[in-house]
Specification:
The chain is mainly alpha-helical. The chain has one domain. The protein is built from twelve helices and four strands, in the order E-E-H-H-H-H-H-H-E-E-H-H-H-H-H-H. A hairpin with a 4-residue loop joins strand 3 and strand 4.
């Protein structure tokens, strides 16, 4: 079975290449659907497959940049991208990303990068999962209360409405974002993008894991616009991140290319699926994916703490990550096919 493994020339590790293909196709679908590069699964996934964490970060960012370009172009055709908002956020993202990348190089010199990155991932994923499901619970309560009063359910209502508080900040310049349908101070997206860029540089993600929820909950973007706009931002930050990590010698281009071939196909499926799965359907699926990813990291940490069962925990972690990617991809693909069939049937009746 040696043909299933390939030696990576830069990092010097031997990798199970079908795992790279599964990650590429699956995360292409998931990334195009959720509006992010998918690095929140790919970075730990590459690490689990055998890449040192610094190489997992740099390699994923290189793969992510190319895939996000494909998804952004597709979302742009659906009118899901607020380019003005995305361009403004680049200002904060680039600065924050470089600060985070420098912190990773410092942690690598100290020998603490593996533990710190995994722990931060776990904390971040837990907070995001709580936020998503708290939002869904509040939304459902609002709907139940409206029905109890004999009112119609507002399809556009939301659970968590932190963006309304943020919009009360009236610091010049105030900017209207047409595609998102909101008006706010330009400093709001700049500050949020700096913070997400900083975390992205540390964790090796395009920032989509936190920026997509931030666009929804802090800036007030509709979910489908947050998806498209975030992918546009991921594309820009990913190109910069790929450059800076390659210059630092932490990018395995062979692995990035293998994943990108599959991701180019998967991204088309995921992007089209957002046409048929809207709003809270996307948020619930996103929350479930976050929980699964967090569990895989817990298993990896247990493997370090309990060496006797290290093989079991490592294999379980690998199975969970690849299984999560497969199941989420299957769900999104099936929903896309069902939606397309329903649309075709409706057109035939006219």
């Amino acid at each position: 079975m040696d043909w299933l493994y390939v030696l990576m020339p830069i990092s010097g590790v031997t990798i199970f290449w079908p795992g790279l293909v599964i990650l590429g196709v699956g995360v292409g679908i998931i990334g195009g659907f959720f509006g992010m590069g998918g690095a929140w699964m790919v970075t730990p996934g590459l690490n689990i497959l055998g890449f040192p964490m610094a190489f997992a970060i740099g390699t994923d960012i290189a793969h992510m940049a190319g895939k996000s370009l494909i998804s952004t172009l597709r979302h742009g055709k659906f009118g899901n991208v607020d380019y003005k908002l995305g361009i403004i956020m680049i200002i904060g993202t680039v600065g924050g990303f470089e600060v985070g990348a420098q912190m990773i190089m410092w942690l690598e010199r100290l020998g603490n990068v593996e533990f710190v990155v995994r722990t931060l991932y776990l904390v971040l994923l837990s907070l995001i999962a709580w936020m998503v499901f708290a939002d869904v619970a509040k939304k459902k309560k609002k709907d139940r209360d409206a029905l109890a009063r004999g009112e119609e359910v507002d399809a556009l209502s939301t659970g968590i409405e932190w963006h309304k508080t943020m919009h009360k900040i009236k610091i010049a310049p105030m900017i209207h974002f047409e595609a998102a349908g909101i008006t706010c101070t330009a400093w709001l997206p700049i500050i949020i993008s700096f913070l997400t860029g900083w975390i992205a540089g540390i964790l090796g993600i395009g920032g989509g894991l936190i920026r997509m929820p931030a666009l929804i909950y802090f800036i007030g973007c509709p979910t489908h616009v947050a998806v498209g706009t975030d992918l546009f931002e991921v594309m820009i930050s990913g190109l910069y991140g790929a450059f800076t990590y390659t210059m630092k010698g932490r990018t395995e281009l062979v692995a990035a290319v293998i994943m990108l071939v599959g991701a180019a196909i998967g991204a088309q499926i995921g992007t089209v699926a957002t046409k048929y799965i809207k709003g809270y359907g996307i948020r619930i699926a996103f929350g479930l994916a976050v929980i699964g990813c967090a569990l895989s990291i817990v298993l990896k940490l247990l493997a370090k703490e309990i060496p006797t069962y290290a093989t079991f925990f490592n294999n379980s972690s690998t199975t969970l990550v690849l299984g999560l990617v497969f199941l989420m991809s299957l769900y999104i693909t099936v929903k896309m096919i069902q939606g397309a069939k329903a649309e075709i049937a409706a057109k035939k009746k006219k």
